[in-house]
């Protein structure tokens, strides 16, 4: 891969014993295989064991009021997804945050399957970083999973002064008992890809994970594999550039990223930077294969609709190659003459057979068979809204894939606003949950009607044998009907573990 450079530096080392890996989730019934495992910790012994776990009954979603015109705090919604329940497809609890304008975004756990062998650990706290205010909320989901309660609040000043970081994004729990959160910037709004460590018991800020002077230019997501002593982080852009919408000139000005950063998991040193080039601009969600022995994974790159495979080479360093490309469409009536698909979320099934990703602008979700890791094969596709719907103001002039403009999607009479965005797969790989909000500043720019009408949560039925996707017409959670007004529901997380938070050792 061209554009690879080595970066090594000196600095202090935060020593932590038995640092293993993962992001965690609240305590719920475990799989039947745990019956003979007295005193086991949270999660599952392996990804394949997790696939045998119980069906999800509730999900947690951060709901946002920023940029909607409603001056209310963001909140954590608990949604009933049990088809046998009388409150199926309903928000059964709302936990408002104690502040305004936080922009809740992604969430993570205090413990997960990385702590499976530790009986002292419980997946009972949900960590909620705020992308704009830089607060971090810790929510008790263990005492009563259906009625979460606030446990602690970490103020922005702790991130600013102790770490020199701001705009926290991804949370992963560590086998050491600590919690690590990636950050996107520094307090002045410039890009800075560093990592905050929290104590797993007190949730106090400990300090930085990375060495002084080794933060990446930009930050976003990260994933680590302890068996291979590696962590990989990605880049979005400078918070001051992206907060109020997307400006193509900011890409030319160098305010958005296009690199993967390779870190030594034990020493915390940054070893490599893989420049993915123009086709890899704005690399967002990064996913290793779930098999802890695997030395490869995938990252979705938003701006050019590309998926790159990253892998360890025979030399022991890391490289990347583009394996999926969703071509842009020539259009009229839009911001630019060409519309990218804008891949905004990806995930991998627990058996490492399929990869799923959302094209937020084009409006479709795709399923690829990745049995041949270097040659993914498209096996499923479904359109759920998007910017090129047939009755909208945008006309497709040229489509390299020769697909007709899709009709608008209605579910139970509700027109789907926005496009498919955040994804979460059931443990058994048969149900894919979808929401339509990306980030309130970008929602307001690209889908202004959604900021007024609220987002939705949908469910897609998955053929996990032959491949295939179809919308479940009987499932809809409409966040346009919330008590305080329409809100923007974002990421999905459910107790017991899922495909984007658990890491195995």
What topology does this entry show?
Layout: E1 4-6, H1 47-50, E2 58-64, E3 75-80, E4 91-96, E5 108-109, E6 125-129, E7 136-140, E8 149-154, H2 156-163, E9 166-173, E10 179-185, E11 195-198, E12 205-208, E13 222-225, E14 230-233, H3 239-242, H4 248-252, E15 259-264, E16 270-275, E17 283-288, E18 296-301, E19 306-312, E20 318-325, E21 329-332, E22 338-339, E23 343-348, E24 354-359, E25 364-369, E26 377-383, E27 395-398, E28 410-411, E29 414-415, E30 423-425, E31 431-435, H5 440-446, H6 448-453, E32 456-462, E33 469-471, E34 477-478, E35 488-489
Antiparallel strand pairs: 1-16, 2-3, 2-35, 3-4, 5-6, 6-7, 7-8, 9-10, 10-11, 11-12, 13-14, 14-15, 15-16, 17-18, 18-19, 19-20, 21-22, 21-27, 23-24, 24-25, 25-26, 28-29, 30-31, 31-32, 32-33, 32-34
CATH topology: Methylamine Dehydrogenase, Chain H
Number of strands: 35
The poorly predicted ranges are 1-36
Radius of gyration: 21 Å
Q: Per the principal axes of the C-alpha atoms, what is the gross shape?
A: globular
First-to-last CA distance:
28 Å
CATH superfamily: YVTN repeat-like/Quinoprotein amine dehydrogenase
Number of domains: 1
Going by helix content, strand content and strand pairing, the class is mainly beta
> Main sheet, how many strands, which sense, barrel?
5 strands, antiparallel
> Percent helix among the residues?
under 10%
Major β-sheet strand ordering: 1-16-15-14-13
**What is the CATH architecture assignment?**
7 Propeller
Strand content: 25-35%
Which CATH C-level class is it? Mainly Beta
How many helical stretches?
6
């Amino acid at each position: 891969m061209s554009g690879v450079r080595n970066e090594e530096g000196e600095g202090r080392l935060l020593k932590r014993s038995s640092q293993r890996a993962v992001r965690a989730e609240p305590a719920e019934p475990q799989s039947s295989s745990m019956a003979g495992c007295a005193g086991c910790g949270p999660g599952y012994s392996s990804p394949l064991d997790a696939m045998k776990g119980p069906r999800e009954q509730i999900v947690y979603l951060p709901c946002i009021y920023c940029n909607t015109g409603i001056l209310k705090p963001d909140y954590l919604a608990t949604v009933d997804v049990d088809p046998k329940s009388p409150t199926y497809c309903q928000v059964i609890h709302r936990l408002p945050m104690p502040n305004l304008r936080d922009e809740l975004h992604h969430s993570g756990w205090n413990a997960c399957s990385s702590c499976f062998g530790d009986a002292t650990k419980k997946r009972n706290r949900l960590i909620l970083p705020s992308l704009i205010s830089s607060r971090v909320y810790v929510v008790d989901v263990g005492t009563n999973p259906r009625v979460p309660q606030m446990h602690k609040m970490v103020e922005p000043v702790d991130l600013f002064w102790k770490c020199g970081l701001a705009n926290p994004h991804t949370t992963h729990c560590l086998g050491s008992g600590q919690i690590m959160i990636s950050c996107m910037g520094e307090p002045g709004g410039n890009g800075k890809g560093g990592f905050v460590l929290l104590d797993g018991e007190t949730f106090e800020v400990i300090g930085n994970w990375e060495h002084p002077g080794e933060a990446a230019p930009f930050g976003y997501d990260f994933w680590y594999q302890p068996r291979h002593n590696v962590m990989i982080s990605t880049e979005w852009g400078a918070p001051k550039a992206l907060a109020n919408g997307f400006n193509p000139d900011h890409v030319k000005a160098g305010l958005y990223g296009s690199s993967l950063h390779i870190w030594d998991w034990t020493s915390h040193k940054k070893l490599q930077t893989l420049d993915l080039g123009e086709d890899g601009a704005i690399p967002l969600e990064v996913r290793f294969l779930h098999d802890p022995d695997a030395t490869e994974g995938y990252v979705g790159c938003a701006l050019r609709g590309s998926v790159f495979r990253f892998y360890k080479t025979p030399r022991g360093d890391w490289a990347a190659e583009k394996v999926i490309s969703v071509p842009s469409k020539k259009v009229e009536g839009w911001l630019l003459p060409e519309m990218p698909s804008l891949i905004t979320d990806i995930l991998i099934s627990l058996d490492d057979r399929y990869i799923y990703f959302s094209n937020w602008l084009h409006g479709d979700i795709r399923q690829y068979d990745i049995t041949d890791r270097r040659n993914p094969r498209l096996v499923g596709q479904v359109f759920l809204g998007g910017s090129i719907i047939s009755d909208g103001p945008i006309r497709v002039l040229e489509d390299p894939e020769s697909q007709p403009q899709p009709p608008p999607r209605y579910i139970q009479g509700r027109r789907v606003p926005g496009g498919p965005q955040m994804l979460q797969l059931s443990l058994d790989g048969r149900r894919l949950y979808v929401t339509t909000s990306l980030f309130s500043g970008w929602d307001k720019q690209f889908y202004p009607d959604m900021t007024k009408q609220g987002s939705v949560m949908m469910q897609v039925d998955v053929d996990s044998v032959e491949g295939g996707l179809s919308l479940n017409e009987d499932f809809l959670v409409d966040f346009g009907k919330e008590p305080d007004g329409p809100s923007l529901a974002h990421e999905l997380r459910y107790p017991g573990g899922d495909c984007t938070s658990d890491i195995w050792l």
